[in-house]
């Protein structure tokens, strides 16, 4: 019996290195580790979740596909229930950027010989800044459209960057690290629309936050340049 992953999880799975020991944090149904094992892509997996309900759903998936001996289910608050040597690759997908940041802050061992595949549902700029300031390097970024929403996915490793962060790069990632997906321009346009809504809300407020308005304006200017550049590249 086989099953398929959503476009979002499939893009995450693509960055999990072959033959690794995977830790899927916030696993919910354990679909990602189950699919990777059934495809013969990974050696073993730990599927962890904070709540008993999702872990019961994960146990149903594990049992359905006969993976009881290959997926270790753990009730764990983030990475608290794991030791450093147990995983080569850690996935955190489908949770907020602040939650991801909090989990990593309690597990400094993830800066050493551990590949991270992160898919923040929110607070992407704050996560990027925190990673850069706390000993992590964003190696690559991709964007995926799934069920009407855009999702950024970050490939991260321990290390330092000498990149200059700007309002635009914090929002959309460093262009030099982008995967050149066909949908990149559409993703950037969606970020532009989000910025425009934020700007309009601030302009109509009784007391304007001029600093925030300036930051949004800088981000929009960068995004417009990148969209124009991508459109020119695609028209060649």
Structure description:
The protein is α/β, with parallel strands linked by helices and 236 residues long. The protein is 42% helix and 21% strand. Strands 3-2-1-4-5-7-6 form a seven-stranded mixed beta sheet, with helices on both faces. Helix 4 links the parallel strand 4 and strand 5. It is globular and about 55 Å long.
The succession of helices and strands, N to C, reads: HEHEHEEHEHEEHHH
Q: Tell me, briefly, the overall form.
A: globular
The chain-level structural class is alpha/beta
Radius of gyration: 19 Å
Q: What is shown here, in short?
A:
The protein has 236 residues and is α/β, with parallel strands linked by helices. It contains eight helices and seven strands; from the N terminus they run H-E-H-E-H-E-E-H-E-H-E-E-H-H-H.
What layout of secondary structure does this protein have?
Elements lengths: L6 H8 L6 E5 L5 H8 L5 E6 L2 H13 L6 E5 L13 E7 L1 H9 L9 E6 L3 H10 L2 E11 L2 E10 L8 H6 L11 H20 L6 H26 L1
Parallel strand pairs: 1-2, 1-4, 2-3, 4-5
Antiparallel strand pairs: 5-7, 6-7
Helix pairs in contact: 4-5, 7-8
């Amino acid at each position: 019996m086989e099953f398929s992953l959503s476009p979002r999880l499939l893009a995450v799975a693509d960055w999990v290195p072959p033959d690794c020991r995977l830790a899927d944090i916030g696993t919910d149904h354990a679909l990602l580790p189950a699919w990777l094992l059934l495809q013969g892509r990974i050696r073993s997996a730990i599927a962890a979740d904070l709540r008993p309900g999702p872990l019961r759903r994960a146990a149903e998936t594990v049992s359905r596909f006969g993976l009881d001996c290959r997926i270790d289910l753990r009730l764990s608050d983030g990475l608290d229930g794991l030791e450093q040597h147990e995983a080569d690759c850690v996935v955190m997908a489908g949770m907020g950027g602040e939650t991801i940041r909090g989990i990593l802050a309690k597990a400094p061992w993830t800066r050493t010989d551990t590949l991270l595949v992160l898919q923040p549902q929110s607070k992407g700029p704050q996560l990027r800044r925190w990673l850069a300031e706390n000993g992590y390097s964003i190696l690559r970024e991709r964007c995926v459209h799934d069920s009407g929403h855009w999702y950024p996915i970050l490939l991260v490793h321990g290390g330092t960057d000498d990149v200059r962060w700007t309002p635009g790069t914090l929002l959309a990632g460093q262009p030099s690290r982008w995967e050149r997906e066909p949908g990149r321009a559409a993703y950037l346009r969606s970020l532009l629309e989000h910025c425009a809504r934020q700007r309009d809300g601030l302009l109509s407020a009784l007391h304007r936050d001029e600093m925030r308005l300036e930051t949004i304006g800088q981000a929009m200017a960068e995004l417009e340049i990148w969209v124009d550049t991508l459109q020119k590249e695609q028209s060649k």
